[in-house]
Design brief:
Chain lengths: 332, 308
């Protein structure tokens, strides 16, 4: 599409218009060229108008997100955490594996700002490296979940019939499982390790996003603009990729924003139990899990990682709430 | 109505079977075995010894047969002997620990519902004033923070800084407070959020205006006219909340040393205690499924527009 916004990958102009302008959808197909949706050949003024309206949802979203102070604060913290995660190697005062058996379980001091753990390792360094693990799990797992869940949900919703019935039944069964229980089960069977965490979260996490994608596709595939595109000869993948999915994007973006803290939580919970990250790699959850056994004698062992988890989770929650509100057209 | 309940109960059977099958497959498809010396609580054994044990526990039979045996026995409530606690049957262990978890969970749920509704109503009635901020921030914290993190903060606050409650144990009602609060905060936050949102909607509805217009004072307006309608979306939440409380209890039970079923959650899984894993997963599964059914029925009772 010649008029798609550069770099966006999807065409918000074409994609978002029908929902905001239903009469436009019904008039547009008549003057559209077969090669290109219907935005292509409409009169210039109309295109300008539609593009302005289309991009405005995202632009408007960003503008409204910026006005939400809590969301901005959350975003700033997230950026900081990402920076810490990226530059963990440089930021760590000591290597996270460096032990000092002369100074075990020490409370915070000048040498060790957050104290030392049971093996005399610097808690601050371990927490800094833990940020990398948390962020890695939070972000990468969403990539995995989306790349499994969206295709399955989209195909299921689009095809309907027996395939859809089978997939939805399967999703229902997966839903009946308490999710964390299933992740723990998979992890304890596979064994601890970062890679296995991705497998476990991917295996269980796609269900929610698949369900949401399916619901969106089901609703959208009956819309006139999809009919129009189909009438113009658009194939299966083009219909889904160009016309349906871009319109389903908003709830998916929100789902992913909330999926990140959930994945971080899952990793922390797994590591807390001892089936998550393999030691000596530090993980906040594991530090809390080990530290809480000594909470009476060495409070700092579990309190600092707990604070780190709390800040991260709150930041993502505030940011996620902000994104949801900003993208909700009803709240305008 | 009767037909609906009946068909829902019938649906439970394939759902639970599928759950058992998935668990069974995950257990057996992954590398390792309970006889493996690496497993927690296992002894290094000679190949003959391993074989004998496998035969004793029926692990040498083909998988489909093992599954069939499991299903037929489980229907009679017989899950066999635990692999880790070799002298005790799984049913015995569960009979002892499940009531404790259930008790903790019920207390937490009651607290969550009562606290959540109160906070939600206060927030809606005093929208954008003090109470609203208190309840919204409490709800956010409860929802956002994992319960083991909450547990750490609560212990620091109420056991160390203000020494009100013990850090763990399960002997006196005083021991119950912190675990219950920890477990309740997340569902309480969710309920408060939903109650607030749905109350705000209802308070603006015409029938609330009518109730005010006919001269009712504030209390009956809120409780008789608004709350009953606002409750409907909140009730649907209870199903997922049971799940949250159920799975959350592991962390809470292990931090506060509560002798409930949650402890066996992970012990059984890392120890590859097959009979125990199946029993724990199915207990949770059945419990959740039944609770979901109850919630759906309650939903119908609250909202006369819904007919089954």
């Amino acid at each position: 599409m010649a008029r798609s916004t550069p770099g966006s990958g999807i065409n918000p102009g074409g994609g978002l218009r029908p929902s905001s302008l239903s009469e436009g959808a019904s008039t547009a197909p008549s003057d559209a060229s077969p090669s290109d949706g219907w935005a292509g050949q409409s009169p210039a003024s109309k295109v300008e108008q539609s593009r302005a309206r289309g991009t405005s949802l995202w632009r408007d979203g960003v503008r409204r997100l910026r006005r939400n102070r809590l969301a901005v604060a959350g975003g700033v913290v997230i950026v900081l955490l990402c920076l810490i995660a990226i530059f963990a190697d440089v930021l760590m005062p000591l290597p996270y594996t460096k032990t000092n058996f002369g100074r075990l379980n020490e409370a915070p001091s000048r040498d060790y700002p957050l104290g030392t753990d049971q093996l005399g390792r610097d808690l601050l360094s371990r927490m800094i490296y833990g940020a990398r693990i948390s962020m890695l799990v939070g972000l990468l797992s969403q990539v995995i979940i989306v790349s499994i869940g969206v295709p399955i949900g989209a195909v299921s919703g689009y095809l309907g019939g027996r395939a859809d019935l089978f997939i939805t039944r399967f999703i229902d069964v997966m839903y009946a499982f308490p999710r964390l229980l299933f992740v723990i089960l998979v992890m304890s069977m596979l064994g601890a390790g970062l890679f296995n965490i991705f497998i476990a979260i991917g295996l269980t996490g796609w269900v929610g996003i698949a369900r949401q994608t399916r619901a969106q596709v089901l609703a959208l595939k009956e819309k006139e603009f999809v009919d129009a595109a189909r009438g113009l000869g658009a194939g299966f993948s083009r219909l889904l990729g160009r016309h349906i999915l871009p319109n389903a994007l908003t709830p998916l973006v929100v789902a992913v924003t909330f999926g990140i803290p959930e994945a971080i939580f899952t990793e922390a919970a797994l590591s807390f139990i001892g089936v998550g990250i393999n030691p000596p790699t530090p993980s906040w959850g594991q530090m809390v899990g080990e530290g809480q056994q000594f909470i009476r004698s060495y409070w700092h062992l579990c309190v600092f990682p707990s604070i780190a988890i709390a800040i991260t989770m709150l930041a993502f929650t505030f940011f996620g709430d902000g994104v949801r509100d900003a993208l909700d057209p009803k709240l305008k | 109505m009767f037909q609906y309940v009946f068909s829902r109960l019938l649906w439970l059977i394939p759902t639970i079977l599928a759950m058992a099958l998935v668990t069974f497959l995950v257990m057996h498809a992954t590398p390792g075995s309970p006889l493996d010396p690496v497993a927690e609580g296992a002894n290094p054994l000679s190949p003959e010894g391993q074989k004998a044990l496998a035969k004793y526990y029926g692990l040498d039979k083909p998988l489909y047969e093992q599954f069939w045996i499991f299903v037929t026995k489980a229907m009679r409530g017989d899950f066999g002997y635990s692999f880790v606690y070799k002298t005790r049957t799984v049913a015995e262990i569960l009979r002892e620990t499940f009531p404790i978890s259930l008790f903790l969970g019920s207390m937490a749920l009651v607290l969550a519902v009562v606290g959540g509704l109160t906070l939600g109503i206060l927030a809606a009635v005093y929208q954008n004033r003090g109470w609203d901020y208190v309840s919204v921030s409490l709800a956010t914290v409860g929802v956002a923070l994992p319960n083991f993190v909450l547990a750490v903060f609560l212990i620091i606050l109420f056991s160390f800084i203000i020494p009100l409650f013990p850090t763990g144990g399960w002997d006196s009602p005083r021991d119950w407070v912190l675990p219950t609060v920890t477990l309740a905060l997340a569902p309480m936050g969710i309920i408060a959020r939903f109650t607030r949102a749905s109350m705000l909607e209802v308070i603006r509805a015409d029938y609330t205006l009518t109730a005010r217009a006919k001269g009712l004072s504030e209390a009956p307006v809120i409780f008789k006219h608004a709350l009953k309608n606002a409750l409907i979306p909140v009730v649907t939440l209870l199903g997922p909340l049971f799940a949250a409380v159920g799975t959350g209890s592991f962390f809470v039970e292990s931090i506060f040393r509560v002798p409930g079923m949650g402890r066996f959650f992970v012990l059984s899984m890392t120890g590859r205690d097959y009979p125990m894993i199946m029993a724990v997963v199915l207990t949770y599964g059945v419990f959740l499924a039944v609770m979901n059914l109850v919630v759906d029925l309650a939903y119908g009772a609250l909202d006369p527009r819904i007919r089954y």
